[in-house]
Amino acid sequence: MEMEKPYVIGIDMGGTNTAFGIVDTRGNVIVKGSIKTDNLDIDDYISQLRTECGKLIDSVGGIDKIKGIGAGCPNGNYYTGNIEYAPNLPWKGIVPFAKMLSEAFGLPTAITNDANAAAVGEMTYGVARGMKNFIMITLGTGVGSGIVIDGKIVYGHDGFAGELGHVNIMRNGRMCGCGRLGCLEAYTSATGVARSAHEILDMSETPSSLRNIPVETITSKDVYDAAMAGDEVAKEIFNYTGKLLGEAFSDFVAFSAPEAIVLFGGLAKAGDLILKPIVENMEKNLLTVWKGKVKVLFSTLKDADAAVLGASALAWEL
Ligand SMILES: [Zn+2]
């Protein structure tokens, strides 16, 4: 890292909002901002991003202080720099996003998907610092993953590797957002947890504070709040979610022998409620050679900054 260029820009693009910040070598987000993602055509979006980031750039001493830009984008492809067929963005088809950013800023730019960005962030600034082999699992609206082998993110032959949210855990199971049946994401994303709540409440008569909420509107946050207050049904929902995650993790371990699986996102906030069933069921299903050897850890990156940090970390390698 050259001292003359002590900063990088991290951009975290979501379907609704885009957050960005300028990050130093130690992983401090020095200044940050955000713009809306939706309702903008791509040229207007880029120009707004340039204007708003420009103010931050000026505040840290100008563009000469910036090494490059890293962006985490839905369906962002590291190899091509394109965003390809992202279902939740206003721009359809293939968007040459890295090229557009690079031209607008005059800086080298790398993009990847959000989960890979989170893995790079964790490896650069977080709990996976120093680890050469780990798997990042992001538990949010969807379930994403970033696989690190020998210190490198696995991108695969086309840049899309690591879609562990869409491994099949239940033949002919629930419909997933990807159009297939039985994906891990359909069970362990925020909406997946809400669907489990729906099913588990339906199957029993056990009293639960969740029964006071119209069943169609129950969210994973409601389940979390109820579980934290000691609600037995809510705890059962977490046990079920953790069991499915733990079983899936035992398969993931068989693929790349990670030293740890790192969890990030809303569900990770449930602490032991989710960790205990995960570890128990992972251990139960692991091949003997890996029993007791693979850690399950929570991300240590600050929530609000994690995605921006993760994306920014890509830019150090440019
Ligand atoms: Zn799927």
Q: Can you tell me about this structure?
A:
By secondary structure, the protein is α/β, with parallel strands linked by helices. The chain has two domains: 7-122 and 304-315, ATPase, nucleotide binding domain (Nucleotidyltransferase, domain 5, 2-Layer Sandwich), CATH 3.30.420; 131-300, Nucleotidyltransferase, domain 5 (2-Layer Sandwich), CATH 3.30.420. Helix content is 37%, strand content 20%. The protein has helices at 42-59, 97-105, 114-125, 185-188, 190-203, 220-228, 232-256, 272-285, 303-315, and strands spanning 7-13, 17-24, 29-36, 66-72, 83-84, 94-95, 109-112, 134-139, 143-149, 152-153, 260-265, 295-298. The strands form three sheets. Strands 3-2-1-4-7 form a five-stranded mixed sheet, sandwiched between helices. Strand 8 and strand 9 (143-149) form a beta hairpin. The longest helix has 25 residues, at 232-256. The chain is globular. It starts with 6 loop residues before the first strand and ends with a helix. Bound molecules: zinc ion. Zinc ion is lined by residues 166, 176, 178, 180, 183, 185.
